[in-house]
Each structure stands twice: as C-alpha cells, then as structure tokens.
C-alpha cells in the first residue's frame, strides 16, 4: 500500500524530495526510498522526465502523431514490429490501439524535414507497414495531465470563514 | 427615522478577521493559509452542465424545495455515501449554500430566549445566526485533550441540558477534528435524555481521512430530532455557486421551507444543474481532490511537528489547528507572521471558546505554496 501512496505523490510531482514524500505519506524517508527502489525494480516507474512546453523555448521542435496500419504473418507479431519501431530515438511514444489503425506513434525531431524524412525513409519502408498517416502537432494544450496555458491566478479572498 | 441597527444586529460584533484582511490586501507576496474554501475549480463536468443549462435558457425559478431531479440525486447520494435515508419529495430542502440552511433552521426552530448550545471552536456563523433568530448562545468548549471532539462531559459542564438545541460541525472548521459513530453515541444519548434538537453541519463529510464519516442522524432515535446540513461548496469545490441542502423529517423541512419560499424562493438554478452533474459524474474528481488534501494534511502536520508547534492530528476538513509557541498569544503571532513574513493564518480566538492559543491553518492551497509558507513559519519561529 505504501508503494501506491508514494507513486501517487510522485505522479503529482516527481521532483518532490524524499523528505517531502515521507511527510506526505507518513512514511519514514528510508521507507520512501525503499518503495521507490521497489517501484523502479518492478519496472512500474520507468523514468522521470520534465513536462516541456516546447512553444516556450526558442528552439524549434517538430512533433507528429503517426497512425500506422500493419499486416501480420506467422513469423511477425505486433510486438516484433513495435520493437523495431521503438528502437528509433525519434519515436517518443508507441502504442497499440483499438479502432481504424493499429499503432499510434509519436515522433519528434528538430525540423519538419527531419521528421518527414524519418517517416518516409525509416518507417514507411518497413515491410509489415501498409499505411502511415502523419499528423503534425501545431499547438499543444495539455501534456501529461498538465494544462499548458498561463494558469489561473488564485482569485480567492485571502481570508474566508 | 434612522438607520440605527436593530438590537439583534447591534449584538453581533463585526468579524474579527477584518483587520488581518486589510493588512493582507496591502501586500502582494502573501501566501494565504487563511482560506476556508478549496483551491480547486469546480470539476469541469459540473461547470459544463451549468453552461449547458444557460445555453438552453434554463434560467427561471425552480420549485421552492429545489428541482426534483436534484433532490432525487441528493437522496441517492447521501444514502450511498453516508447511510442517510431521506425522501426526495418531502425530506430535502435545497438552499443557497449550507449557510442558508443553517440560518433557516435557527429561524424555524429557535424562539426568543431559547438557548442553543454551540460546540466550539466552531465555524463563525452559528452565533450570529442564533442571535438574529432571537436565541441565546450557550458556548460549549471542546478541549484539545479530547482532540476537539464534543463530549458528554463538555455538554454537562456547559449546562447544555437546559438548551433547546445543539449545533456543531464535524469534520470541524476550524480544528479539523472528526467524530466517529462511537464518539457520537454519548452525544446522541445526551440529546435524547434532555430533549435537544441537533443541527449537524456535515458540509465537510467527504473530507474525512482515515475512515468513514459518521452522521448522528443514523443513530437510534436521532433522525427525528436532527437537521443535517450539507452542500457542494467544499467536496465539489463549488463555493461561488452557492448550493447546499438540509435533510430532516418532513415536518421540519416543511417548516424551514415556509421561510425559504418567502425569503429565497428557490436556490440558484444554474447551480442546481451543476449540482446534479456533480453528483452523477464527479465522484472521481472528489476522490482525486481528497487524495491531494490528504497528502497536504500529512505534510503540514509533519512540518509543524518539525517546527516544534504542537498540533493534534486533524483528520477532516482542510484545516489543522496548531498551538502557537510558548509565550505567544495567537493574535499577535498571526499578525506578526503576516506583517513580517507574509503568511496569512487565522487566530483561533475568532472561533470561540477553546480556540485561544491556536491558529487555523488551511491546506486548501497548492504544495508549492504550502512548502514555502511552512518554511516562512519556521524562520519566524526560529528567529525568536
Ligand atoms: C462548517 C461550515 N458550514 C457551512 C459553511 C458554509 O458553506 P456554504 O458555502 O455551503 O454556504 C462553511 C463555509 O466555510 C463551513 O465551514
């Protein structure tokens, strides 16, 4: 149970210090450390990355959502195709989904040219892939559960009963 | 002819927080832990239902008692969550905030000269409400040694057997205290033995950590003498929408409605639409908010312990009630903390007897602010 509480706190903010997570969960710091180590060892926690609003950085960052259709045969299953695609560093997320297409792939690069070259030269030629539909991201409004707007000021009265 | 206030208005002093409010308004670096409302916005689904009702032009009065659909939703909700059984057509009155329900109950059942026992420290509106109704307030001080729970001994000591009614709120504003079913039993016995009505303000019921909320109205022989107040302000983060309700036997609701139909007509219609949606689809939002409050609660309690300000373990609402350090009085502490370090808290004395020497600290504020505010409090205490 303590693992769940630690996870809930870190999902709120992965940069909470061990001491703060301990305060929030009522565990000792060493228990928090142990819970985090267990979560990491079990592969539940896979990493810690900041949620970036690329629009606020001067550097160009091009992202695309790519729908992929594939055909399977006796030797090749979804996992085989996925493994191959996921190995590319340009692929930032890859999910098998229900519906009209099979894979939902997120791709990132420094320029439009780089991303489209990657898709046409590396992804489309994969023999099992029958179709790709690429959607370039124009604006992002929410990432990892965080809204990217300017946020609302706290307009509550400083004292209320 | 003059606008000289009527006697019962003159009897009620202006709010003790006013002075602090003015100081806080002059600074722009204040972190407020003085707030008695959620820092979350109303769940989006509920806001959307309100918007949708406006788009469809649903802007007329509703039935005095509230929309039938809403009363049915409330009836199901309180049964499911708190084991309370109230008939949607006769035993529920939808009001403009729990505030209106509290006021109605006092005006409906308190005669001039009636004594009303008020468990304190408590939410600040009961005393004025009783006074406006012509009743006399009988303060019943709870003690930190009892974790600010109301006890039979405290009632007896205050002479509450002479009272006509008892009002309290658990989970408590300002202490964060909660009462279990077992702890409510002697209170129920006392009310039955001395024939007291009970006004149970349960607006923080959902914000109960470590365990389930217990309502006194579920104890034997209590339903017929209890009015329960609840609402959407706290659990559903709907303070500004102004929506609450009273639960009581049909006769009592009828009496309260006799005032409500003339003085309010009906609770805000837009808010009623939001409230239906809040019940029907926002349980997950409530759970998420409660989990966050609980993390903050434990964080704040841990920090006060580290700072060396004793604080009993509050298990409800979104307040903790630490003692000020030795040698301080709470008013001075709160004022200097505000002027020197820009942290707003409310001195416990504002909440009646038993509150002296304490501060009400609200954790209805984001973790970043809480962390910074507690660091400032620590510097303030260490610097002395
Ligand atoms: C104990 C208690 N009861 C009632 C209220 C009023 O709630 P409402 O917004 O529903 O009028 C408050 C608000 O602070 C409260 O703390």
Automatic annotation (TrEMBL), chain A:
Listed A to Z, the keywords are:
DNA-binding, Transcription, Transcription regulation
Which InterPro entries does the entry mention?
AsnC-type_HTH_dom (IPR000485), Dimeric_a/b-barrel (IPR011008), Tscrpt_reg_AsnC-like (IPR019888), Tscrpt_reg_AsnC/Lrp_C (IPR019887), WH-like_DNA-bd_sf (IPR036388), WH_DNA-bd_sf (IPR036390)
Claim: Cytoplasm is one of the keywords in the record: no
Gene3D superfamilies hit by this protein: 3.30.70.920, Winged helix-like DNA-binding domain superfamily/Winged helix DNA-binding domain (1.10.10.10)
Q: Where is the HTH asnC-type domain?
A: 1-79
One GO MF term on file is:
DNA binding
Query: Which domain of life does this protein belong to?
Result: Archaea
The reply to whether Transcription regulation figures as a keyword in the UniProt entry is yes
Q: What is this protein called?
A: Lrp/AsnC family transcriptional regulator
TrEMBL record, chain B:
What keywords are assigned to this protein?
Aminotransferase, Pyridoxal phosphate, Transferase
Q: Which GO terms describe its molecular function?
A: transaminase activity
- Cofactor annotation: pyridoxal 5'-phosphate
Q: Which InterPro entries does the entry mention?
A: Aminotransferase_I/II_large, AspAT/PAT-like, NHTrfase_class1_PyrdxlP-BS, PyrdxlP-dep_Trfase, PyrdxlP-dep_Trfase_major, PyrdxlP-dep_Trfase_small
SUPFAM superfamilies attached to this UniProt entry: PLP-dependent transferases
**Domain Aminotransferase class I/classII large stretches:** 29-377
What residue ranges carry the coiled-coil annotation?
Answer: none
Q: Which domain of life is it from?
A: Archaea
Matching entries from CDD domains are given as: AAT_like
EC top class, as a word? transferase
Under Enzyme Commission nomenclature, its number is 2.6.1.-
Q: Please give the Pfam families that the UniProt record associates with this protein.
A: Aminotran_1_2
What's the subunit arrangement here?
Answer: Homodimer.
Q: Which family does it belong to?
A: Belongs to the class-I pyridoxal-phosphate-dependent aminotransferase family.
Descriptive protein name: Aminotransferase
């Amino acid at each position: 149970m303590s693992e769940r509480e630690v996870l809930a706190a870190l999902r709120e903010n992965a940069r909470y210090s061990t001491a703060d997570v301990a305060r929030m969960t009522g565990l000792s710091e060493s228990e928090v450390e142990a819970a985090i180590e267990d979560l990491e060892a079990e592969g539940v926690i896979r990493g810690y990355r900041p949620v970036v609003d690329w629009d606020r950085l001067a550097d160009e960052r091009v992202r695309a959502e790519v729908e992929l259709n594939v055909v399977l045969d006796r030797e090749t299953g979804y996992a085989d195709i996925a493994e191959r695609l996921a190995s590319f560093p340009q692929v930032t997320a890859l999910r098998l989904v229900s519906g009209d297409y099979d894979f939902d792939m997120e791709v990132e690069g420094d320029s439009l040219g780089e991303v489209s070259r990657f898709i046409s030269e590396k992804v489309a030629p994969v023999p099992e892939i029958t179709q790709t539909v690429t959607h370039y991201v124009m604006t992002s409004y929410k990432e990892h559960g965080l809204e990217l707007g300017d946020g609302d000021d706290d307009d509550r009265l400083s004292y209320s009963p | 002819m003059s606008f000289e206030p009527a006697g019962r208005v003159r009897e009620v002093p202006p709010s003790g927080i006013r002075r602090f409010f003015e100081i806080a308004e002059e600074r722009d670096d204040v972190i407020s832990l003085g707030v008695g409302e959620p820092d979350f916005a109303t769940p989006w689904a509920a806001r959307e239902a309100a918007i949708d009702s406006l788009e469809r032009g649903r802007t007329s009065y509703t039935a005095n008692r509230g929309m039938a659909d809403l009363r049915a939703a409330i009836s199901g909700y309180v049964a499911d969550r708190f084991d309370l059984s109230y008939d949607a057509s006769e035993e529920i009155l939808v009001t403009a905030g729990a505030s209106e329900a509290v006021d109605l109950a006092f005006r409906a059942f308190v005669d001039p000269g009636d004594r009303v026992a008020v468990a304190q420290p408590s939410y600040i509106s009961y005393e004025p409400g009783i006074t406006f109704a012509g009743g006399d307030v009988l303060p019943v001080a709870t003690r930190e040694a009892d974790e600010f729970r109301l006890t039979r001994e405290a009632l007896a000591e205050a002479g509450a057997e002479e009272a006509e009614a008892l009002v309290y709120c658990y989970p408590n504003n300002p202490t964060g205290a909660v009462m279990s079913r077992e702890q409510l039993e002697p209170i129920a016995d006392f009310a039955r033995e001395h024939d007291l009505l009970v006004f149970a303000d349960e607006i923080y019921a959902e914000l109960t950590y470590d365990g389930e909320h217990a309502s006194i109205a579920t104890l034997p022989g209590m339903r017929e003498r209890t009015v329960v107040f609840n609402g959407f302000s706290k659990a559903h983060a709907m303070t500004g929408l102004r929506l609450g309700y009273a639960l009581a036997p049909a006769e009592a609701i009828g009496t309260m409605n006799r005032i409500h139909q003339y003085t309010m007509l009906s609770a805000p219609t837009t808010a009623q639409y939001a409230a239906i949606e809040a019940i029907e689809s926002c349980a997950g939002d409530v759970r998420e908010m409660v989990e966050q409050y609980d993390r903050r609660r434990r964080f704040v309690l841990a920090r006060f312990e580290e700072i060396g300000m004793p604080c009993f373990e509050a298990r409800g609402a979104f307040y903790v009630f630490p003692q000020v350090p030795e040698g301080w009085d709470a008013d001075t502490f709160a004022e200097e903390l505000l002027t020197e370090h820009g942290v707003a808290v409310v001195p416990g004395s504002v909440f009646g007897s038993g509150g002296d020497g304490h501060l009400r600290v609200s954790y209805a504020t984001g973790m970043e602010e809480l962390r910074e505010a507690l660091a400032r409090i620590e510097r303030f205490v260490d610097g002395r």
